[in-house]
Amino acid sequence: MSLWALSNPDDLVSLQRSSAVNGMIRNPYQIPTLEECPECGNSGGLGGIIPIECPQELRELLETHIDHGEYINLSHEEYGKVVDVARKYFREKDIIAGSRLLPLYWHVPSPPEQSVFWPGLRCIFHESLVAALEQNQVTGLKYIPIEVARVGSLRVDNKSWNRKLDSLDDSEMLEASRPFVDNVERYGNFFLVEAEEKVFYRMANELNWIFCSTCGHVKEEPNHDQYQEMVETWSQDFVIPRRFVPDLDVFKCPGLGRFVINDKVKEILKDSESGNFMTKAVRII
Ligand SMILES: [Zn+2]
Fold it and tell me: Which domain covers residue 266, as residue numbers?
């Protein structure tokens, strides 16, 4: 069996060109982050995506904590009020500061004509690729529906690209992508794709790390240098120790691209005829 690190291609020379192709995800509803976590003292929150529509009662409460379009960090007391409402609708263990709820919206400045996209640190697949992966019973991935909210008409190639675009931030980039495409449905459905983080948690377990159940940060981090050393070696040499390789077709691994995939998944990606990704061989040691 061969393994491959899958990541975004490195041929889009600027962050702006990458944003123009891959777009950005907006999530209007999230469990707020904390000013100072009562459990571990960190601020912020590292919750993941709870793939459930945000209930109306919670939407109304969350909207009171937005300032200039951004969520503010809450005091522990205010955070507690949000959690009291959230626990009526979600499993207690999923309610971690910073967790995002559906709907998720995708804004993409150029027409999405590929099967794979890399907005920020996330990954999006077209439904045709998801169908192929499901047909082949690929293990290790979760598919979360995402709404295509806005598609612009920018074209990212050397002939038409205006260098002025290289200095824009994400919202300016979106403005620059006018005129917007009216019928976004014609591009089909897209899914945010997440892989299991088995390797990271196996490492954390081996190193005796303890995570905070309120905000998701590492609460106790013994043997941090050992962790750092392992990840550096893996990312320099593109290797992974056999004991950490999970029995999955796709997984996430610190230092090795966005995902690690096996031959079966590499073939499916190749057949999808999508560009916009690259693979690099990973050696098992
Ligand atoms: Zn905490």
Answer: 196-284
Rg (CA), the chain: 20
99 alpha carbon – ligand 1 mean position (Å): 13
Q: What is the dihedral sign for C-alpha 105, 126, 194, 236? A: negative
User: CA-to-CA distance for 201 and 193, rounded, in angstroms?
Assistant: 19
From 155, 37, 170, 55, select the one nearest 103 (Cα to Cα).
55
- pTM score over 0.90: yes
**Cβ(281)–Cβ(238) under 8 Å?**
yes
**Are 149 and 21 part of one and the same domain?**
yes
Q: Are strands 3-7 and 259-262 parallel, antiparallel or unpaired?
A: antiparallel
Ion ligand 1 — residues with CB under 5 Å? 37, 39-40, 212, 214-215
Question: What distance in Å separates the CA atoms of residue 216 and residue 211, rounded to the nearest whole number?
Answer: 6
Per cent of the chain over pLDDT 90 is: 85
Condensed to tens digits (0 to 9), the pLDDT of residues 218-237 reads 999 999 999 999 999 999 99
Contact 110, 271 (CB under 8 A): no
Q: How far is the CA of 209 from the centre of ligand 1 (A)?
A: 14
Structural domain count of the chain? 3
150 and 182, same domain (yes or no): yes
Domain membership flag for residue 42: no
